Amino acid sequence: MILVTGASGNLGTIVVENLLKQIPAERISVLVRNPLKAALFENRNIKAHIGDYSDKASVIKALQGVEKLLLISSMGADALQEHINVIDAAVQAGVSHIYYTSGALNRNVKKSLLGPLADSYMTTEDYIIASGLKYTIFQNGLYLETIPFFIGEEVLEKGIYFPAGDGKASFAKREEMGEAIANVIAEQGHENKIYVTTAVPSHSFGEISQMLSELSGRKVTYESPEPEEFENQLKEFGLQNEDIYYSQILAAIIKNQEYNINVSDLENLLGRKPTDLKAYLKETFLP
After folding, report:
1. Which end of the chain, N or C, is more open, meaning fewer C-beta atoms within 10 Å of its C-beta?
2. Tens-digit pLDDT profile for residues 12-29
3. Residue 172 pairs with which residues in a beta bridge?
4. How high is the mean pLDDT of the chain?
């Protein structure tokens, strides 16, 4: 039996859909918080458990009879402790193999701006390795689907206004990351492996503006403002504080080269080349 946590989220949904292409629904179970979403899985013969990372007892209950566990990383304020709860529960329940979605971070950066999130990724990886469980860790890059959020839908007319400087980042389609993860879980092997699941090479937002210029035949500019100026502009646009914070922190992280990744296992795990950045920009902004 396989248990997918966070199964109703964007990545979890993709993983489940791809698992269904390879193994019977009766061998798949999910952990979700919402009973209504649980019912949707049950209607497809997928066993659904109601639970939460912070509720260790609910996780232990869901893990009874489970051999393979996919732990999709939490984005909560107490993510590290939530991960520890799930890992401890997996050990207690006798899970054989744990799979974890971490982050594809540039380990050469001397001072990270990710704060607790970086600690969550790296410390969770270490905790899994020390747990004695067989493990497979997926170090995911940024989703290509975040680019429209960063640069706006009217980028061809207004240009790119984003404080990422000359920082580079690796991006991959969420659908392809989820497919690769499902491929690994559905197969035997992959024990005690760490895979970098993103597309290479990394690109800067200056390069993104150049690609859009080439694709559209018009000049798409790139301006990297000061963080305070960027924040004030977003406030004028009426963005929620949470979205402003997310934009600012991701811009700072990219500027700091923390997602500048130049190696990847995604092509091998997919069995084909992943969608490259220019192709994504074409299909998204010039359909």
Report:
1. C
2. 999 999 999 999 999 999
3. 143
4. 94
Per-residue pLDDT band at 93 (split at 50, 70, 90): very high
Reply yes or no on whether the pLDDT at 119 is more than 80. Answer: no
Question: Residue 69 phi/psi, 5° resolution?
Answer: -120, 125
**pLDDT for the residue numbered 237:** 80
